[in-house]
Design brief:
Elements (H helix, E strand, L loop, with lengths): L14 H10 L29 H13 L4 H16 L1
Length: about 90
């Protein structure tokens, strides 16, 4: 039994075109044409979700807007300050 020859990868002019190609085609058909890539992943960073009272988050959001930062940044800054104070 002969092995099927992989299909030639059609030329694309942009990353968007390549994404569209693989939205409609099986990447396995072109696997031999794919370059090897290496990248690092930092698995130590985590995001923790915390419930905040609805009235409180409204006030925090208003203060954050007045300071031209996101509510997330403001909350993290204030929590860091309190943790350092408690020390």
């Amino acid at each position: 039994m002969t092995r099927n020859k992989p299909k030639d990868l059609p030329p694309t002019r942009s990353l968007d075109e390549l994404v569209q190609l693989f939205d409609t085609h099986d990447m396995g058909e072109y696997w031999e044409y794919m370059p090897e890539v290496y990248f690092d992943i930092d698995l130590r960073k985590r995001t923790c979700l915390v419930a905040v009272d609805e009235e409180l988050i409204g006030k925090l959001t208003e203060i954050a807007k007045a300071k031209h930062v996101s509510a997330e940044i403001l909350i993290n800054l204030w929590l860091k300050e309190k943790v350092l104070e408690a020390g």
